[in-house]
Amino acid sequence: MELTRGNEDLERLNQELNDPETLRAYREPLDAYRPSFLPRILGSWLVFCGNLIYGEKPTYLKFRAVEVIARVPYHSWASSAYTLLTLFYSDEGKALKLSNLARYARFAQDNETMHVIVISQLARQEERAGFFRHTLIPMLFAFFYFWWSYVLYLANPRYSYELNYMFENHAFEQYSRFLEENKEALSHKPIESAFLNWYGRHPRTQYEFFQSVRNDEIIHRNSSIHEITPKA
Ligand SMILES: [Fe+2]
Ligand SMILES: [Fe+2]
Q1: Do 159 and 227 touch, CB atoms closer than 8 A?
Q2: For residue 232, how far is its CA from the centre of ligand 1 (angstroms)?
């Protein structure tokens, strides 16, 4: 998938990925992708800290923390693109590339914002959030992650995309596991959300909602690598 795609294309792809065969074919070619050393270290550290603080098992509150942090790379890429446009505005080819990135980053950022808003509503019904663990720590992580991602992008965009690959891959695995382990219960929980209506997505149950989030994460993961190697 290329970054020039609009939201309608992303929503169509999301729907298609409900089919297990289509999902497998989309996922498998990039499952074995090996990021460079620096993003691998940073990404593994991020996942390790997440598991340490929130546990390895996926839960509503862990997802809430993941989603607070997941928005950040897209925000940082949009900022990096605008920063670079103050230097390269007279190079039309480069400006087009950066504007494409900024456009995609806006779509992805809105998508992650939808995840965090809806999931925090769902989490409120299920689990009690603590201020330090569930609000302050994700906020601090988001702050530092923004600057890593921003600086990495300016230094070498590949590093920033690969770091996001690692984070999104972890998110995808966690949602897949959550769906597998809670299929029955989630299928019986209807979902009502003003924000989802505004976003234009209409799942009937929590299962359908989390399935669509899982699909978003694999699209984010693959898009990061497609940006480095368009044919991958
Ligand atoms: Fe997300
Ligand atoms: Fe994501």
Answers
A1: no
A2: 22
- The verdict on residue 1 lying in a domain is no
Ligand sitting nearest the alpha carbon of 116: 1
Token pair 């991020």 is found at: 46
Rounded distance from Cα 91 to ligand 2 centre (Å): 31
Measured in degrees and rounded to the nearest 5, phi and psi for residue 143 equal -60, -50
Give 9-23 pLDDT, tens digit per residue. Answer: 889 999 999 999 999
CATH assignment at residue 110: 1.20.1260.140
Distance of CA 210 from the midpoint of ligand 2 (Å): 12
Give me the percent of the chain exceeding a pLDDT of 70.
96
Give the ligand whose atoms come closest to the C-alpha of residue 113: 1
Core vs surface per residue 41-76: b (16+ CB within 10 A) or e: ebbeebbeebeeebeeebebbbbbbbbbbbbbbbbb
For the chain, what is the domain count?
A: 1
Ligand 2 centroid to Cα of residue 156, in Å, is 21
- For residues 169 and 44, give the distance between their C-alpha atoms in angstroms, rounded to a whole number: 11
Running DSSP on this structure, what letter comes out for residue 129?
P
Task: Provide the residue range defining the domain that includes 206.
Answer: 7-228
The whole-model pTM stands at 0.93
The residues that bridge with 205 in the sheet, in sequence order, are: 190
Does residue 2 sit within a domain? no
Q: Is residue 145 part of a domain?
A: yes
Flag whether 129 is in a domain.
yes
